[in-house]
Amino acid sequence: MTNSIQFTKMHGAGNDYIYVNTLAYPIANPEELAIRWSRYHTGIGSDGLVLIGKSDKADFSMRIFNADGSEAKMCGNASRCIGKYVYDHQLTEKTTITLDTLSGIKVIELKLENGECVGATVDMGEPVLSHPGQCATADGSLNNEQGVFVSMGNPHFVNFVKNSETHDVEGEGKKLEFDPIFPERCNIEFATIRPDGSIRMRVWERGSGITMACGTGACATAVAACVKGLTGRQSDIEMDGGTLHIEWRESDNHIYMTGPAATVFEGEIK
Questions:
Q1: Which of 25, 78, 132, 133 is the most buried (most CB within 10 A)?
Q2: How far apart are CA 174 and CA 209, in angstroms?
Q3: Taking Cα atoms as reference points, which of 179, 189, 187, 170 lies closest to residue 140?
Q4: How confident is the model over 261-269, as a mean pLDDT?
């Protein structure tokens, strides 16, 4: 017997996922469905599948499956969208929500306008650098590539380039994702510092390829720029799908990410 599942297509700065409330619609094969549903011509079309569930440690839980079916530990844009989903669907009246992820509990502060959630600030926790203040060097397929490795609960390799608009993100991103230095593969960012201090960044996401935005990637880029002395502790990161504001607070060493969350459409699929 085939079941019908209700879903919501949402995006944060263009980073689009399919969201399913598993409290109402349990899913047993998310890896397979993420691949099938994420296809743009024969499925719904998305960067992946996000499951909203219950948690005994937080208000809700989040599981993320990339377009290739692999499971991700964290997604900043999806966290904001889950905040919007649970508030707009009246699953909670809270404006401060805790979310259980594979990279720990995240706290989401909702931004409301006329009773609707339009965005949020997420406490993304502390960044982890492989060599604080130092450069990591990929020594496999691109042995001349240099960048800064930052973990935001998932791995990122941030490269500062002359012009991220024209840089070969697909060619270099695909090679670096599978470089031997990254045993779990890696998200790859290409960033350029602008004269006003903002950062233009493009991203190759592990398991999804080029995406319009990456929340954890924006956080990693802001950290890498600060560590290299290119910016201060606050940065506006402009990506293909929009801009996120990132603050690396000195008081608690946590990263705070602020940005939009939007619903595209709702539907039903077999």
A1: 78
A2: 7
A3: 179
A4: 98
> What type of residue sits at position 148?
V
Neighbouring CB atoms inside 10 A of 210's CB total 14
pLDDT tens sequence across 186-215 = 999 999 999 999 999 999 999 999 999 999
Q: For residues 224 and 148, what is the distance between their CA atoms, to the nearest angstrom?
A: 6
The torsion angles phi and psi of 169, rounded to 5 degrees, stand at -65, -45
Residues recognised as catalytic? 75, 214
How far apart CA 260 and CA 21 sit, in angstroms, is 21
Find the distance separating the first CA and the last CA of the chain, reported in whole Å. 10
pLDDT tens, position by position, 106-127: 999 999 999 999 999 999 999 9
CA dist 171 → 21, 144, 210, 232 (Å): 36, 15, 10, 30
Percent of the chain with pLDDT over 90: 91
For residue range 16-39, list pLDDT tens digits in order: 999 999 999 999 999 999 999 999
Strand pairing category for 15-21 and 48-53: parallel
